[in-house]
Amino acid sequence: MTDSRRRVEADELRSLAFDAMPSEVAVLDADGTILETNGCWTTFAEDNGIAFHPDMIGQNYLDTCDAAEGDETATEAASGIRSIIDGERESFQFEYPCHSPDERRWFMMRALPFEYQGSRCVLVVHTDITDRREAELAVEERNDQLTLLTDVLSHDLRNPLNVALGRAELLDGDDEQVAAVRSSLERMNTIVEDALVLARKTDVEQLSAVDLPTVVRDAWSHVATADATLTVEPIDRIEADESLLSQLLENLFRNAVEHSSTSPPSHAREDAVEHAGSDVTVVVGPLDDASGFFVADDGPGVPAPDRDEVFEPGYTTNADEGGTGLGLAIVDRIADAHGWSVRVTDGDDGGARFEFSGVTSAS
């Protein structure tokens, strides 16, 4: 094959590749006149009612933008392209809506300069970003709903609940009906607190060097531990958000201490997140084979088939005793926010052992 033939074939290949690009592409000269467009550009023009010369070759793109008076998108596009032609910048891009009567659409326009036969030309590419933009809007809508839910839980529900709890404390504590009311109110308060943790943003904004044993003992003091015992093994300082780490530990301690099993011993293994109760022993220490730490207890433990489900919001086998099914979901959420992995396995004494790996040492 001769060099001349190779050049012809290379030109044909470039032309086919240009025409096959999935975005609308146009080449402009230094005056803004359209020199070439691809197939996607022509198809888009035809689909949007441009029947005469849908390829738009020979038309001035800047004049077309300028003629769209009051259209801020067209004005921004023309201004950006002119800045490329004048050499004021080497690239320009912006996102814009381009809705039709039948559907909502968004595009990103990008303009890049190149030299052709001694003249400055501009490559203009319009890419459909509708799927991405729709996903972003869905996330924004969900965040707005979570904000509204948080406000309702924080003020509209929690305030009257606190009043009811205060009044219940003034009633006869020995009365069985009063005790049932107080227990129900306390469970509602726990559900609200747990739901607030899940609904609020749990992203880690700044890590700091944390003395884990200190945070462990602090978190333990915030939980009604009754006759439970805490053992803290020596462990290096870690990088963590101290407030979120404390919430994680409190939920694990509460899961071990407050979710007392009322089943006979033969049924203990069936109670996936029901632990030993008020006399449980909890141990916190470093992992042997990885960077991280564990929290273990000597309760009934978690059966292997349930170990993935226990981290799902709402999963509990202890609803009658006040379980909300949110505590371990919060643990999983906080671990994920730190970039840690969490898994539950058997403890040395047969209970549940929660292992956190991927933790960065601050030593």
UniProtKB/TrEMBL annotation:
Which SMART domains does the annotation name? HATPase_c, HisKA
Q: SUPFAM superfamilies annotated for this entry?
A: ATPase domain of HSP90 chaperone/DNA topoisomerase II/histidine kinase, Homodimeric domain of signal transducing histidine kinase, PYP-like sensor domain (PAS domain)
Superkingdom is Archaea
The protein in question is named histidine kinase
Record domain Histidine kinase: where: 152-362
The record's PROSITE patterns line, in alphabetical order, gives: HIS_KIN
The first-level EC class reads: transferase
Q: Which GO molecular function terms does the record list?
A: phosphorelay sensor kinase activity
Q: Which InterPro entries match?
A: HATPase_C_sf (IPR036890), HATPase_dom (IPR003594), His_kinase_dom (IPR005467), HisK_dim/P_dom (IPR003661), HisK_dim/P_sf (IPR036097), PAS-like_dom_sf (IPR035965), PAS_4 (IPR013656), Sensor_HK_Regulatory (IPR050736)
Keywords, comma-separated and alphabetical: Kinase, Phosphoprotein, Transferase, Two-component regulatory system
Give the Gene3D superfamilies listed for this entry: 1.10.287.130, Histidine kinase-like ATPase, C-terminal domain, PAS domain
What PANTHER family is this protein classified in?
HISTIDINE KINASE 1, TWO-COMPONENT HISTIDINE KINASE
For this protein, the Enzyme Commission number is 2.7.13.3
Q: Which reaction does it catalyse?
A: ATP + protein L-histidine = ADP + protein N-phospho-L-histidine
UniProt keyword Kinase present: yes
